[in-house]
Records
---
Amino acid sequence: MKKLTFTFIALCLATQLASAQQLPPNKWGVEADLLVPFVPEANIITARVTHTIVGRPGAAHGDLLLGVYLRPNVTHDIVDKIDEYLLTAGYRQYLIKGFHIEGQVDTGWARGTRNKIDGKDYENFTVLVEGHAGYKFNFRSNRSYNFYLLPQVGVIQGAVTDIGPRGGKSDTFLSAKVHIGVAF
């Protein structure tokens, strides 16, 4: 009986100690934008992998961002249809808790079909530069991963783009995004 009681107490203590340990930080993440794919004339699909490269999650830290920016055959205000297939690279710096700023460069290929001013098709190398600020809301689901929601606002600038005459329309855009992701 004493042996059984001792074993039970030891098991209870071991369970308490294990649950009281600090959870390891999640250094990797995968995220996609929930908002922009459904905005008319934007319809941009983005997905990224994140990895903490400076500091540690839970404190001020920095994440490397790598991903894709896809805009397949979308109705556009400058051309009848636009196709953009870009790779993205960026950096997100967390300042306090979930508050962060990030910069990103998107490079790849774009095609504009029938410009609405000159009627020509355009196909070229494209570079976009993005800057955003936002807050990351973490929803811990278990010990090995957690879900998060990351709303952001910012600006996107066409650094190297050519889909023909723009008719005075800017190549700088205000941006709002809502990323959903999982960190592991």
---
Amino acid sequence: MRRRFRDRRRDFVAALSPARREALERDLASVVVPRTAGYRFPASYAAHGAEIDPGFIEKSLQNPAFPRVSGENLCFHHSDCNDLAPGFCVIREPAATAPLVTPDLVLVPLVAATPDGRRLGQGGGFYDRTLRLLRARGPVIAIGLAWDVQITDTLPADPWDELLDLVATPTRLVDCARNR
């Protein structure tokens, strides 16, 4: 299933012109940015491969944090996106010396998602474990970012899966709690 959605995402992005991809990522920002107001410690991610890039969203965030793999979890560090360097699985990460932050809003990459907030990730469980830890400390909103072709009606669920609060694509914002 993961391979099927990765292939679907890859093929969709490969068919986009650079201008069309940028337009869709700007559309994503227009959908998401209104929901980011009021959060003090937002976290984003460095898009990898065919993932939708949150860069236009980040421009509206004050001092965003980015994830860095730390053992079996992620920790978030304030960093300029231009200062990120290849780290775990060649994904760009902040320096370990960058200031740590506990985010209250997390933009989450994904391979596929459902309207009720189930998420299929890369398979390492980093975001599931990290969201569980963050939610144990206090409120945190998780917004999954996707191309429209990554949204599906059903996905298998495991007991350790953490649900997304919102799923955003360039064309819509889904309040997952309403669909549970």
---
Amino acid sequence: MKDISLCGLGNALVDLFVDIDELRFSELGFERSTMRLVSAAEQEQLLETLHAHNPRKVSGGSVANSLIAFSQLGGKAAFLSSVGSDSLGEFYRKEFETLGIEFLSKATSAGPTGTCVALITPDAERTMRTCLGATAELGTNHLDEGTIARSEWLFVEGYVLSNPELGHGAVREAVRMAKAHNTKIALTCSEAWVINGFRDFFDETLSACSLVFANEEESKALTGEATAQAAFKKLTQSVPNVVVTMGPDGAWVKWGTAEAHIKSVPCTPRDLTGAGDMLAGAFLAGVLRGESVENAGNKAAALASRVISQIGARLERV
């Protein structure tokens, strides 16, 4: 019985949001709008530096954020990941329990629960420093075949494909399980460097997918095309369902035989990064309820606009 609509496989990270002015940001010497992986020691030092800013704590991760939006819109979701056996891991677990999402993570003592420090500058850009911690240990032992079997869709986070030691095995085995139980597979690209750095495995995974989410740069990296529209058209030739987002220029969407261009909703951005995660979760909630591509896309675009008008990738109400 398929009693779960969407099962995510991705990184479990506790997001720590910090509003920071331009002067303080320049003192840190970070390149704006980048995401960099750092060690546990580097992250601890950064958090000590930012202690006076009182970072706001919330459970996150790319696919996790999409699952939260999906659940808030009435969908039944589950999440396969890895957290540390520490207070942040317990915080993450309890948040997902409160959100009504099945959280199937085996706590590991291999490292602390992963964290992502998000520095929000006045231009609404987010500069991130991520310590994967325990989520770097996400492997085949964190999978649950029964949960995948109960799910209509498996939603794979592209970042997991950037871990050849454990992530590749986890994704390959999750895809095998999904195929064995007629569970459809969706993939979100995460970032263009994941595609470029792990091309062969990315292509292997994509070939098993019924749905792909990509932003403009990711779609170009996937296809070699010069524009998002051309990349979208090329992707639709090999993947049954495709969503290519283009920020203020909206999104190109194909679901089944229907195609549409979805317009963005104008807003005053405060934090740009959560838009794609929200759009993916909201779009899936709509189409899996049987809504038309246009209705599901327009609602998803409206919610993406709302989420970038605030700090953080989660809406209190949808």
